[in-house]
Amino acid sequence: MLRREDFRGTDPCNPTSAGADIKEMKDLTFSTAYNTNFIASWSSTTTTIRTPFIAAVNGYALGGGCELALMADILYCSSSATFGQPEIKLGTIPGAGGSQRLTRAVGKSRAMELIMTGRNFSGKEAGEWGVAARVFDSAQECVDGAVETAEKIAKMSRVSVRAAKEVVNKSQELSLREGVEYERKVFHSLFGSKDQKIGRSTHQMQA
C-alpha cells in the first residue's frame, strides 16, 4: 500500500503562498535567468513524483503558489481561497507552467483574461471552472477532505495508483488516439502484477 505523508505549513488552515521572492527577481538579468535555467527545477516537480500529490488551498495561492497548486494531482480548496497569476503587474509572465496548466484547466479565453489582467479568482470560481476537484465551506473541512482522500488512495494498490497517475498525466501531452493506446499498454501491463491477481480473486469471492 501507499504511505500517506502530510506536508503542511505552521497553520494548515490558513496558509499563504505568494510564489517566488520578488526581491530575488528584481535584479535578475536575462543572461543569469537563461544560464541558470531559473525556476525550471520545480516547474515540473509533481510529474516526477510518482506518489499522488493532493493540494489543499485555504489562503492565497498567487504567482508561483498558484502554479504549484495547479501542479497537484488533486486540488481541493475552501470557498474563501484566492488564486491568481499576477506576474503581468510586475512586467513579466508565469514562468513555472502557469500559462499552460491554467489554460488547460479553464480554457484559452478565460486564461488570457486572468493572465493578461492579473485578476485573482476565488475558490468558488476554481470549483466552477474545473481548477479544483472539490470546494469546501471552511479551511478545516478542506484539510480534512484532503487527508480523507489521501487515506483512501493509500489503501489502494501502489502499482495501480502510480499507473493511474501516469496515464492521466500523459493525457495532457498526447493526442486522444496516442493517449488511448498508451493507456491500453499500461492496462495490459498491470495483468502481470500480484496486486491485480489479488484484487480479482477478492472481487470474485465477494460476488
How much strand?
5-15%
**Beta strand count:** 7
Q: Which blocks of ≥5 consecutive residues have pLDDT under 50?
A: none
Average pLDDT across residues? 83
- Ends: how far apart? 23 Å
Q: Give the radius of gyration.
A: 19 Å
Major beta sheet, strand line-up: 1-3-5-6
List the defining traits of the structure above.
single chain, 207 residues, alpha/beta, 7 strands, 53% helix, 11% strand, globular
Outline the fold blueprint:
Layout (H helix, E strand, L loop, with lengths): L15 E2 L4 H5 L3 H6 L4 H4 L1 H4 L5 E4 L2 E3 L1 H8 L2 E5 L3 E3 L13 H9 L1 H10 L3 E2 H7 L4 E3 L2 H16 L3 H13 L5 H14 L4 H13 L1
Parallel strand pairs: 1-3, 2-4, 3-5, 4-7
Antiparallel strand pairs: 5-6
Helix pairs in contact: 6-7
Description:
By secondary structure, the protein is an alpha/beta fold. Helices cover 53% and strands 11% of the residues. The protein has twelve helices and seven strands. It has helices spanning 22-26, 30-35, 40-43, 45-48, 64-71, 98-106, 108-117, 123-129, 139-154, 158-170, 176-189, 194-206, and strands at residues 16-17, 54-57, 60-62, 74-78, 82-84, 121-122, 134-136. The chain has a four-stranded mixed beta sheet with strand order 1-3-5-6. A three-stranded parallel beta sheet has the order 2-4-7, sandwiched between helices. The longest helix is centred in the last third of the chain and has 16 residues, at 139-154. The model has no long low-confidence stretch (mean pLDDT 83).
